[in-house]
Amino acid sequence: MGLHLWMITKLVVALSKVIFLFRVSDAAKNATFDENYKITWGNQHVQLLNQGQEVQLSLDNTSGSGFGSKDYYGSGYFQMRIKLPGWDSAGVVTAFYLNTNLGAHNELDFEFLGNKPGKPITLQTNVFANGVGGREQRIRLWFDPSTDFHYYKLLWNQHQIVFFVDDIPIRVFKNNMMNGVGFPNKAMQLVVSLWDGSSWATDGGKTKANWAHAPFLAHFQDFRIDGCVSSPTSPNKDCYSSRYPWNNQKFWQLNNRQLRAYENVKRRSMKDFVLDEDIDAPDAVLKPFHFCLFLTIFQICLFLKSAPYLA
């Protein structure tokens, strides 16, 4: 049994390296920062690296920083490769999200909540639709997001919103407007920011950012955008057209592989928004080796299948 497990582990590691090499090759074709994004605040705390293929945001006791897309979008498949501030990052919030900025508030959030040394970073997702939020969910990731880059992705069409970590769906928000549940349907801008959330992010605000360890640094890659350009004041009615791949029927719901992975994530790690003391409970922490192995194999299957956009 031990030998078989060792052989499976070696195979997974080898295949993961192959996938990584393919993705590195593909990343070379990605858009540069200036093609799709602009700095929105904290200019002195933003640094472009590798000829615009990477951006470093920094946070200290004087300012955070951020950038946003030049255009607004009415649907799409959005992604960013992110490496978070590590070690003592309590109080530090790194965010990647879609936001309306105008009119009724629509927003789709990835928020990474820093933590004390030895404590895991928490990923919080949220959905605002027509000014109504309060849908926070938190998850403990199955890896340390501060040691390497990982993909964080948002699929948004008229049928569903899916949050992905790498290729693993971690949250699904279905369109239930027929039942009176709001669903984001306004043009939104992609926004990335690094800021001080000491008032709430860690231990309910009891643990603040330790400025002795500043600057806190977050790194971002892959600035391509697959989205339908729209406007907050003049929506593009074509954004739900089937000519955009993410609107095709196969993206109206998770496929069987994705559904199995999603159920595993929900069962093992997902919790509705509660106090940090509750989230620190052992059943909220996702660490088991076998689940990590399952997720890696799942990613390999998706890659080999080569499904567009979601592989």
UniProtKB/TrEMBL annotation:
Acetylation listed as a keyword: no
Q: Give a GO biological-process term.
A: cell wall biogenesis
Q: Which residues cross the membrane?
A: none
Q: Where do the catalytic residues lie?
A: 107, 111
Q: Where is the GH16 domain?
A: 4-220
Question: Keywords for this entry?
Answer: Glycosidase, Hydrolase, Signal
Which N-terminal stretch is annotated as signal sequence? 1-27
Q: Which GO terms describe its molecular function?
A: hydrolase activity, hydrolyzing O-glycosyl compounds; xyloglucan:xyloglucosyl transferase activity
- Full protein name: GH16 domain-containing protein
Q: Where does this protein come from, organism-wise?
A: Lactuca saligna
Per its UniProt record, what PROSITE patterns does this chain match? GH16_1 (PS01034), GH16_2 (PS51762)
